[in-house]
Amino acid sequence: MKKISPIRSLLLLALLLGGVACSSGSKEQKPDPVQLLLVEAQSLARLELATTKLRTTVVIDPKQDGFLGWKRLFGTRRTELELTSQASVSCDLSKLTESMIHSVNDTLVELTLPPLEVQRELEGVHRKVRREADPLRSSLTANEVNELLRQRKELIEETQERALIEARPQLFRAAERSARTRLAPLFAKLGLGMRVSLAPQDAAYLAPSGETNPQ
C-alpha cells in the first residue's frame, strides 16, 4: 500500500479544517429571521399608533322647579355642553415574545402585536356651550359650570367611557394600519415579507357588526 507523505497529510488536514470552517461560516451567515425580527422589533419599544376625539353631550341644570312653578314660567338655566377629549392607542413592542412571531416560509413572517394600550386624557377636556339658559334667565357662570361638572364627575366619566367603547373598533383599525406602516421598513431591512395582526383580544373588537364585542 502506498504511503502518504507527512506533508500531504498536513495539507489534507488543512483542507478538511478549512471546509469545516467554511461550513460553520455559511451557517452564521443565515441567522434565524424570527430571532432577528424579535430583537429588532423589541428595540423600537413603545409605538404611538392612533388617536381619536371623543365628543359627548352633557346637560346641566342647577335647580329643580321652584316655588309655584316660577321656573317653568320664566324658563330654566338648563345648559347643554359638548365635552371633547382625546383617546390614544399605543403598543409596547418591548413586550413582544418569540411566540408572537411565526415563520410562514423562508421569506414570509407573521407578527402578532402585544395587546394594545388605550389611554384617555382626563385633563384638558375642552368644552363648548351648545345651548344656553332660556333668555329670561341668567346664563350659568364659569364657576357654576365648573361646580356642576365636578358634581357630575362620575356620570361624565361613564358617558365618556361609553363613547370610547363605541370608538374603539375604528381606533383599533387605525392602529393596525399604523403598525403595518411603522414596521414595514424593519421587515424590508431584513428582507422579509410581512404579516402584522392584532392580539386576539384586540382583534375581537373588529368583529363584524351584529357580533358581540368584548366590554
Largest sheet: 4 strands, antiparallel
Q: What's the total count of β strands? A: 7
Give the averaged pLDDT, no decimals.
80
- Work out the strand percent: 15-25%
- Encode the helix/strand succession as letters: HHEHEEEEEHHEH
Helical proportion, percent range: 40-55%
**Over the alpha carbons, how many angstroms does the gyration radius reach?**
32 Å
Q: How would you sum up the global shape?
A: rod-shaped
The rounded distance between the terminal residues' Cα atoms is 85 Å
In the predicted model, the low-confidence regions spanning at least 5 consecutive residues are 20-27, 209-213
Counting helices, strands and paired strands, the structural category is alpha+beta
SS summary, helix count: 6
Provide an overview of this structure.
- The protein has 215 residues and is an alpha+beta fold.
- It has helices at 6-28, 33-42, 70-74, 142-151, 153-189, 200-203; strands spanning 46-60, 79-92, 101-103, 108-112, 117-120, 126-131, 193-197.
- The strands form 2 sheets. Strands 1, 2, 5 and 6 form a 4-stranded antiparallel sheet that branches. Strands 3-4-7 form a 3-stranded mixed sheet, with helices on one face.
- The protein is rod-shaped.
